[in-house]
Amino acid sequence: MNAEVKLDPPPGAATDVRRKPRVAIIGAGMSGMLSAIKLRERGIEDIVILEKADRIGGTWRDNTYPGLSCDVPAHMYTYTFEPNPEWSHRYARGPEIYKYFDHCANKYGLKELIHFNAEVVSARYESGQWFLKTGNDELHIADIVIGATGVLHHPSYPDIEGLEAFSGDMFHTARWDHDVDLTGKRVGIIGTGSTATQIVPQIVDKVGKLDLFQRTPQWIYPLPDKTYSEKDKKRLRGNGKLARKIRDRYSKMFEMTFAKAVTGNRFLLWFIGWVCKQHLERKVKDPVLREKMRPGYQAACKRLIFATGFYEAIQKPNAEVITDGIERIEANGIRTADGQLHELDVLVLATGFHAHSFMRPMEMIGKDGVSIDEAWAEGAYAFKSVALPGFPNFFMMTGPNSPIGNYSLITINELQLNYVMQLIDQWSSGNADEIVPRTDVTKSYNEALQNSMSDTVWVTGCKSWYFNEFGKLAMWPWSFNHFIDVMKEPVLAEYELNKVEAPAESEAA
Ligand code: NAP
Predict the structure, then answer these.
(1) Does residue 153's CB lie within 6 angstroms of at least one atom of ligand 1?
(2) Does 463 reside within a domain?
(3) pTM of the full predicted structure?
């Protein structure tokens, strides 16, 4: 590890450490790397990070589409302990976010912990230990497993007749094919989510014709960007206090507005809706197009799009919004319900992700031989977003019902790790060999979660990826402050803290 980086145990960390666990982290994205840093702060060095790809970065590695950026302010979308004075814009672009995480991986000596091209295909718990097998035939035995597999990493390909018949170039936005030159081409984009909205302004001037296939219109909240000058950056260099102040200011703003609105503040919701409506009405000149693009549901019901430049781009003479339903895809393009064939050279699938897979398709077998698919037969759930009954010593980053629709992921993961580290302290201090949430408590917790959804914006009448395949909302219905409180400290009575007989010879292997 780089000698400059000194990781002090945080206040409250276990001091009577009798033993140190071996920890396997699945995934070397933002949350997996953060997990390793937090474990090391605790003095835990026996860590392996298993990463299916050949590079770090998770979502910021997989997504390379034109216009990729983060709609959370850059100074907020940074680890709290690693401010970045070099952000070029208020809303950072994908490549510089990747660069930031790569810098963190190097600075905190994480790459030496990572096994690349090592996709975990199975994980089995037996007698206090996890046995993990990777696709490249590695076997890892760990006391603790942290699943840091992200939320939006399995692209969703649309189930449209004839998709495979398309003879031009076709790719999902999370698998952007940079070998395909879009210059002068007839390009079709299916989808109008955050991703498509970022792509359109970036490619419209390059392509010959741009057809945007919209199934559902989206509300768009205008997001004024800002370029940071050399002077801005200079002010921040070596001034961690100022960086923290800026971060705190953005965080407070987020907390007081968006996070409150989505969980039921009617005035703030009205205000967001009003801003979006003004944005649409001011920017879209043609009344026919404006009505085509006007959603019929409350703004922020679907994941709100924060963007500027999209409305301007889609009104360019070579762009068109197509709202007739897609009938089928043919070799030369897309046939819509009105019978028209929209001829295309390139088809971009901006159709989102399977957001409820979590670490699956990995085969995961917990205590008593229960598989994760069996445990989640009626939809993924967790205890306080990080743990799961029947799966001891297994902790999830951004697990089910994390506040992903309320707040920024980095903050969420830092809070989750604060909680998880205290559970791991129970193992380290010898209080327990097996830490697992109680089934009854988890059941009540999830009932309370679902019963509280009725106040949220997500149930106000739209279809979104926030619902799982069983029609349940996979969101956090309470205030973000409540999440902060919950993550402060685990209530140990909500867990079984078991002792385990020494594991038998590794038969499970
Ligand atoms: P998405 O929000 O799930 O949008 C998918 C789009 O594809 C929707 O417009 C959907 O229409 C359409 N679609 C799906 N299947 C279709 C079909 N068979 N026929 C026609 N249209 C179809 O996906 P995304 O835009 O990739 O965004 C996913 C999430 O990634 C976002 O919600 C956000 O959380 C995250 N993201 C974040 C940022 C950021 O700046 N932080 C940027 C990009 C993405 P319907 O609406 O009708 O279902």
Answers:
(1) no
(2) no
(3) 0.95
